[in-house]
# Entry
Amino acid sequence: MPDHAEELCQLLKDATSEGSLVKCVFSCPRTSERQFQRVDVRPVEVRGQRLLQFTSHTATQQQHANLNAEEGAVELIRLARFAFRNIRLSTTTATCDARFSRKGKCFLRQEASRKEPVPTEAVPHDRTRNYLIPEGVPCPFLIQTGVMTKDGSVRASHSRKFRQINRYLEFIRDIVDELPSNRPLQIIDFGCGKSYLTFATHYLLTTLLKRECRIIGLDRRADVVDTCAKIVKELGLTNLEFQVGDIAGYASSAQVDLVISLHACDTATDEALAQAVRWQSPVILAVPCCQHELNSYLARSSLGPLTAYGVSKERFASLATDALRASLLTAAGYQTQLMEFIDTEHTPKNLLIRCVRRVERTVSDAVVTKALQDVQELSRQLSLPRLTLERRLMESGHLPLSLVCPSDVDTSHGQK
# Structure
């Protein structure tokens, strides 16, 4: 088999110089010691200048760098030749998949795009945002839920909700490539509430991305489920349904590809996360809310002013809870990130937990061990028993190592 390394480099150069690059994804680092696990590249517009934005992912963070066309081409080739084994290049006319063997030989497969050419306009990064659902263009579900008027204008009272919906859709778009492409997607939204974001997910996947999917919204309140079902009927939507039920113990008859849990209160978030892990869902997106469980133990700790004031205690409890959740999900085999969901001026609940399980690359034993040690050490420092998510993962056998709580902690308090 011939080596296609030079051909790949030329494709990367051409995509950059011609401005035809839509997206490029580098994955599978060449060495386990490499800092970044993945790099995403896309065109952006900053102050009227077209640049390439490189988003480098570690297990817990993202780093961004914007480069011009010449610098970008050099960096693309460097990443392909020396840093990563797998490269997927999407341009306006074709998709290219490249794979480097351990001996450095490049295998290349190209496929012409079967869809209409993808526009190459860069995403503006100035104050004016180019939303996936633009203002001024009527969107049926936003009109039906009161966010928009019939002419597509966003109601002033719903402007924050409109920005929140669009920010959320960006997260969904970013993980679509991690979901199965050979069958319809199965998605569960736990604690869907009024379901703005459930409808948004359906709209993005079916209308904008032309993906087949079946989405179920689950909530304990029959009144909101009835309201959402009426909207589905009035808009004539297919493969979108709402059910009354609890997160804990919910059974699905099919493999669930994406689990969503947005603002599920307190330990309901933990139940949703634990259920997603049991299903081994490829992607989990969760925006936690009302983290009371850990808060109830902080009075016993010696954190001084952190717990002496209600506001600081609540915020610290929220951050500590989500940090523990992230480490536990990492230990359960997910590449986990804590990310800002939306600016705090729009909502104080602005932290999103994003978890991806990639079939071709599992989380290493060293990362799992470190994550478990982090959980144990923070629990010891705060005198915590096992919290809900840890208990659920241990019960289902999805934590590979056992954690020992401090012997002086009453682990029966608060158990469910």
